[in-house]
Amino acid sequence: MRRIGINQKAAVGILLLLLVAFMALLAPLVAPHDPTLQNTAMRLKPPGTPGYLLGTDPLGRDILSRIIYGSRISLIVGLASVVVAGAVGITLGTIAGYIGGTVDAVIMRLADLQLAIPFLVLALAIAAVLGPSLRNVILVLGVTGWVTYARVARGQVLSVRGREFVEAARALGATNGRIIWRHVLPELWAPLIVIASLQVGSMILAEASLSFFGLGVPPSIPTWGRIAADGRDYVTTSWWVATLPGIAIFLTVLGINLLGDWLRDRMDPTLRG
């Protein structure tokens, strides 16, 4: 790890993410119980109960199994929504920065309008209209998260489009599409990759929030936000139901942020040292 410049914080982040990815990929093999199996005779059993390492929820479902299966939804939503937001934001930001004029003004005013509305409020409103489903959650978070990519891409394009190599390509007869693809976009990847790595954690938190309010995926699918919501009425008597999925969210987002900080340091020459 030292040879490729990975520090201790990044190593911790990588290990946390590998653990979550391991749980998500091998959930049917490592989960001790069916996450949807109800057993009211075992409801609200504390952690350490034989056969239920992390206890059970109000319906007698195994908390550990539900957390393991919930990691699948968190990773899918986090990664897929960042891809959607990045694709929309980079496309619009590149068009705005390269073309300029009225097109730039319209796209940036649209971004300003969206920034005027709190991210979670906008996501909740759209999710309430579309209804609960995994596809809708990814679409909602992707559509509401494009602004950061657009603004950064626009700024980078504005700084690149007047450089000598772009002017030379234009003088040689290159089309605008070729100039953008071959000469402009390669200059954008470093800052946008850092933003994407950090935004995965934000998307996981947003998905958990939507699920907590019942606007995420259908109730039959275990998610960390849904598990926490199931325990909100039992915080004083059965703390583990709401606390343990919260710890899972915390550790996952922590791992993502530690890795994102390392990527930022590696890709920004002014921060190396």
Characterise this structure.
The protein has 273 residues and is mainly α. The protein has one domain: MetI-like (MetI-like fold, Orthogonal Bundle), CATH 1.10.3720. The protein has helices spanning 8-25, 27-30, 63-99, 101-115, 119-130, 134-144, 147-160, 164-171, 176-184, 189-212, 224-230, 240-267. Helix 1 packs across helix 12, helix 3 (63-99) runs antiparallel to helix 4 and helix 5 packs antiparallel against helix 6. The protein starts with 7 loop residues before the first helix and ends in a 6-residue tail after the last helix. The relative contact order is 0.15.
Report the span from N to C terminus: 16 Å
CATH class: Mainly Alpha
Mean residue pLDDT: 86
Beta-strand content: under 5%
The description of the largest β-sheet is: none
Q: Please give the CATH architecture.
A: Orthogonal Bundle
- Round the Cα radius of gyration to an integer and report it: 22 Å
> What would you call the structural class?
mainly alpha
Shape verdict: elongated
CATH topology: MetI-like fold
Tell me roughly what share of residues is in helical segments.
55-70%
Tell me the count of domains: 1
Count every beta strand, where a strand is a DSSP E run of 2 or more residues.
0
Low-confidence stretches: none
CATH superfamily: MetI-like
